[in-house]
Amino acid sequence: MSVLILTASFGEGHNAAARNLREALVAADPALEVGVHDVFAEAYGPLNEAVRRAYLGAINRVPSLWAWCFEVLDKTPAVPAHIGIYRRAGRRIKDLLSRYRPRVVVSTYPGCNHLLDHVLRDRLHRDFLTATVITDSITIHTSWHTAVSDLYAVPNPDTADVLLARGIPREKITVTGFPVPRAFAGLRAEKPGIPAPGGAWKVLYMVNSAEHTATRIASSLLALDGVELTVTVGRNDRLGKSLAALPGAPTVHGWTPEMPRLMARSHFLVGKAGGATVQECLAAGTPIVISQVVPGQEEGNARLVVNHAAGAIAKSPADIPAILREATSQGGALYRRWAENAMALGTPDGATRLAGHLLDRLR
Hints:
By secondary structure, the protein is of the alpha/beta class. It has 2 domains: 2-180 and 348-362, Rossmann fold (3-Layer(aba) Sandwich); 184-345, Glycogen Phosphorylase B (Rossmann fold, 3-Layer(aba) Sandwich). It has helices at 12-28, 39-44, 46-61, 63-75, 78-82, 87-100, 110-119, 157-165, 214-222, 237-244, 259-264, 275-284, 299-307, 320-328, 333-345, 350-362; strands at residues 2-7, 33-38, 104-107, 129-133, 151-154, 173-175, 201-206, 227-232, 251-253, 268-272, 288-292, 311-313. Helix 1 (12-28) packs across helix 16 and helix 12 (275-284) crosses helix 15 (333-345). The longest helix is centred in the first third of the chain and has 17 residues, at 12-28. The radius of gyration is 21 Å and the shape is globular. The protein starts with a strand and ends with a helix.
């Protein structure tokens, strides 16, 4: 058997879900062939990268423009009506279907499902199961569920309720949890306790694409008493060197495979409300202080955290220190509540559960 997973690099959550699902599927059935493909990147190369960078620029520099684009695409049939312009990506999907002859085609990015519909528009019946892994919570773009799909895997009951309210049949919806790295399943035992008097609260600041605020946020966190700061900058070596030189010298990591352990060993994470970031924090049982919310798709992720009291939203970088001071006051009473709720809401075995559900459907 083979499984084809389609993804796209417009938001790291899509790729993370695809990678983690592949790992869980292969772990469950080593004989299974699983291919993960970003068909837009493979079809358009440098042009796709330029568009991706433009998207990142829009969400970080002119979020109101992106909010308008999100709403227009959400309330009109623009995505299915114009997906056919991506002819090269369509040909790439045809090649992949021919190569893998999959029993299941999984999409972790909504545009992939619509492109698949366009490619297969003359076929009345598919000889494979079509599954959609929704990577955000609550504020779900209509493009996620307006293409053909036999199954919708969602990260939490809140999101399942949204799909039900929009008319998606209950039998097509399964709450598996977000497919976070399987490593999270064994890391909750490494959670640090409340610091002893004179000890330090461990704060992990995950810098995202909004690097223009990174120095200000890191400096404000370093100014807090009783805080041990760790910063991750991905592959941005220039920013990493700049932050490492700040007074107070935070621990700075570039790209590292140890992110799950860094999350689990922290009391708090400061970062944006991305689908993967929020779900990984919950899987680790680590409260999140949200430093940025991309309008549209990330609003629901932030709402999930606040509705379940698993963290807080900072309206501006200046609010972050005050939120942490409140959460750590009175012996960390608020922190304890946030951490307990994050533990209850998180699904560290989400990838394994999703892989098992797909394999059960095949058998």
